[in-house]
Amino acid sequence: MQKIKVYHFNNGSGGGVFSVIKNLLQFSTDPSIENHIIYTINKETTPHFEMPPLAKATSQQLFYYSPKWNFYYTCKQLAKLLPDDKTVVVAHDWLELGMVSNLGLQNPVVHFVHGNYDYYYDLAKKHEPSTDRFIAVSPVIYERLLRNLPGREKDIHYCRFPVPSVQAAKKENERLKILYCVRSLDDENKQFKILPLINAALKLKGIAVEWTIIGDGISKDEVENLMNQHTGIGLYPSLPNEEVLQLMQGHDLFILPSLNEGFPVTIVEAMKAGMVPLVTNWGDSTGELVIQGETGYYIATGDANGYTDTIALLNADRKLLKYLAEKGIQRANELFDPYENAKKMENVIKMADPVKKQKLPIKVYGSRLDEPWLGNTLTPFIRKAFTNKRNA
Predict the structure, then answer these.
(1) Measured CA distances, 99 to 92, 154, 234 (Å)
(2) Burial of 132 by CB count in 10 Å (0-12 exposed, 13-18 middle, 19+ buried)?
């Protein structure tokens, strides 16, 4: 059997995108697919990157680049890592999409659209001529892609991501345990600043809870001062996903008040672990999973009192808390079966035959310093000189 070589690209930032790649490989059962990973690392911001262990990856490679380089040079160097033009490119972000567009590569291209943001829709639009299939990870993203890319309906697919099973432990917490898990606490979109308001309002109601906060960007002292709480709080700058899943088993509530999201993997993981989600309704992107008053609660953007009142309700009514948790476990496991969902994603990847017409090179990224004939000596020299002049 001739293997289908599939190359997944990841920028090394971790988070939900990496979880999707990792889980897709972990639960793959298709012997015809050979999965490879290329980590595209900006050496100016991340001079040293450690590849995470992925047992089911046929190969993993590191590609360091500089934003000062001639972009065509960057693309050509990155393209050298692909064995041939039959190799399937699974794109998650701009650099690999820029490679296939700027060089006019003939490879089959599958673009995962992860977020319900203009950034992701702009990527899809810019690189539409070079992309053969699109995978939307939420119904909202799927519907918007259909509107944004008329004529490509048959090439756009909604696929739920594969999420591993989580052992849901029996919880008998006297104080409710609340988990807040993000990459960066100072990310304005994630709305960490609402947590101290919720905590203060709970204290006024005489309700003591235990917080677990995962995220970097703010020091432990700052977090404790903001929360006005030096006990009953666990703070971790970051944790491996396996440890996050273990923590989830002992927690009651998962809170994510972000301004916008696509479909966070952590919500599914939390619900499989028996946690009740309290989240923002991001354009109904999680509507099939989080059902108001049935498997969780939606709280209006920035509504600290709404979060406080809901936590107080569940603190007082532990039967309701248990009911919501059990319904959430059932719903999350039904919709996000890891093997079934991995199979559906891989079926789309296998369908990614290139369009019949020749793909033409399109200069999507780059300035006058980024031309195929310019090489990579003059461009970084000029960019470095301009940077030094600005900083002088």
Answers:
(1) 12, 24, 43
(2) buried
Query: For residues 103 and 85, what is the distance between their CA atoms, to the nearest angstrom?
Result: 12
First vs last Cα of the chain: how many Å apart? 61
| Surface-to-core class of residue 43, CB atoms within 10 Å of its CB (0-12 exposed, 13-18 middle, 19+ buried) | middle
pLDDT along the chain (392 residues), means of 10: 91 86 94 96 94 92 96 97 96 97 96 91 96 93 96 96 87 92 91 94 94 90 80 81 90 94 89 96 87 96 96 97 96 96 96 73 90 86 72 56
3 state SS for 280-325: CCCCCCCCCCCCECCCEEECCCCCHHHHHHHHHHHHHCHHHHHHHH
Report the predicted TM-score, pTM, of the whole model to 2 decimal places.
0.89
3-state DSSP assignment of residue 244: helix
DSSP character at residue 47: S
C-alpha atoms less than 13 angstroms from C-alpha of 263 in its C-beta half-sphere: 28
The answer to whether residues 88 and 352 touch, using CB atoms and an 8 Å cutoff, is: yes
Look at strands 297-298 and 276-279 and give their pairing: parallel
Q: Please, what are the domains in the chain?
A: 4-162+340-390 (3.40.50.2000), 177-336 (3.40.50.2000)
Give the number of other CB atoms < 10 A from CB of residue 334. 9
Sign of the C-alpha dihedral computed for residues 332, 333, 335 and 336 taken in this order: positive
- The crossing angle, in degrees rounded to 10, of helices 318-335 and 265-272 is 120
Strands (DSSP E) found in the chain: 4-10, 33-42, 59-65, 88-91, 109-113, 133-136, 156-158, 177-184, 210-216, 233-236, 253-256, 276-279, 297-298
Beta-ladder partners of 158: 136
Q: For position 391, what pLDDT does the model report?
A: 60
- Determine the Cα–Cα distance for residues 86 and 203; give it in Å rounded to an integer: 61
